[in-house]
Write a structure and sequence with these properties.
2 domains, GTP-binding, GMP Synthetase, Chain A, domain 3, globular, membrane, Rossmann fold, binds guanosine-5'-triphosphate, three-stranded mixed beta sheet, seven-stranded mixed beta sheet, ribosomal small subunit binding, 10 strands, single chain
């Protein structure tokens, strides 16, 4: 229950923005823990990931979403990513529209047009302020973009360094519905299974260790996941579209696959709090990005948040 004098607020906030703008980094920063995968390559987030932020004044169900592309192209995967991102808006009470402090382009414009159509309250989150070499450029930028929409608030932040991140969460709460009680279990981090998050951590290290082309052609599924008190045994498959990509992922003498496995294992051990035995396989599945059944296997269908 809320204290007598304190009003609790709770609700969902969708984090939207173009690819690579820092949405997942912001989610992880506010959770104080890694949940959503990040990389220095666009379009890494493929799912709607929910992370729960529990604060003294309330709770925020943060919805991280795939970067929205202006022109998604013909591939079923890309279209599904855009649908997922825009679909999160239907669940949201408030939107964080994330843009970069040093750039505003057509893709931002396109997303803003979609937000206008939805008519939800929108906070403009101007990220990566740590990258600005000349700080005096920030104010004119904020003035210029601030008039493009009736934003409920505009906040410059650095998701990477943490500047203003806490203020952003506190400011968002004020725009969420007042509630009698905390709707979520404060100990619950996400609506995703540990199995799902583990597959994502493997994909993160895969993406990080490869060049530009293969990451988008790669997917990860978990074949088995056996939890024991001190050891978790995981067997997973990395799917690619062509034999050449399989060879790249495995690397000379299996070195690359070994390194991906070792980094992913450490990340999963942190998440699970147990030792992890991780077995990785690489298999070819031509055209998986256009195979709706396989996309469903990858959980591109959204789960529902289990209310407590
Ligand atoms: N300098 C700086 N870099 C940042 C900041 N926030 C994120 N980044 C970097 O930007 C890159 C992309 O970050 P992500 O969080 O993966 O971006 P995203 O918007 O989730 O990307 P998509 O999955 O493509 O939608 C990573 O290399 C981050 O480390 C920031 O505040 N400052």
């Amino acid at each position: 229950m809320a204290d007598k004098n304190e009003t609790l607020h709770a609700g969902s906030v969708a984090i939207v923005g173009r690819p690579n703008v820092g949405k997942s980094t912001l989610l992880n920063r506010l959770l104080g823990q890694k949940l959503s995968i990040t990389a220095d390559k666009p379009q890494i987030t493929r799912h709607r990931i929910l992370g729960l932020v529990d604060l003294p004044a309330g709770q925020i169900a943060l919805l991280d979403t795939p970067g929205i592309h202006r022109i998604p192209g013909k591939r079923a995967l890309n279209q599904a990513l855009n649908r997922t991102a825009l679909g999160a808006l239907a669940e949201a009470d408030l939107v964080w529209f994330v843009v970069a402090a040093d750039r505003w382009d057509d893709e931002d414009e396109h997303i803003l047009a979609a937000l206008r159509r939805e008519g939800l309250p929108v906070m403009l989150v101007v990220n990566k302020i740590d990258r600005l070499r000349e700080r005096e450029r920030l104010l004119p930028y904020l003035e210029r973009v601030g008039v493009l929409y009736d934003f409920v608030e505009i906040l410059p932040v650095s998701a990477l360094k943490g500047d203003n991140a806490q203020r952003l969460a506190e400011a968002a709460l004020k725009h969420l519905p007042a509630v009698e009680e905390r709707p979520y279990d404060p100990d619950q981090l996400t609506d995703r299974s540990l199995r799902f998050v583990s597959a994502e951590f493997i994909r993160e290290h895969l993406v990080r260790s490869l060049g530009e082309e293969v990451p988008h052609a790669a997917a990860v599924t978990i074949d088995s996941f056996e939890e024991k008190p001190t050891l978790t045994r995981i067997s997973a498959t990395i799917w690619v579209e062509r034999d050449g990509q399989k060879a790249i992922v495995i690397g000379r003498g299996g070195e690359r696959l070994k390194s991906i496995g070792s980094k992913a294992r450490k990340a999963i051990e942190q998440l699970l709090g147990t030792r992890v035995f991780l077995e990785l396989w690489v298999k070819v599945r031509p055209g998986w990005q256009d195979d709706p059944r396989f996309l469903r296997e990858l959980e591109l269908e959204e789960p529902r948040w289990p209310k407590t």
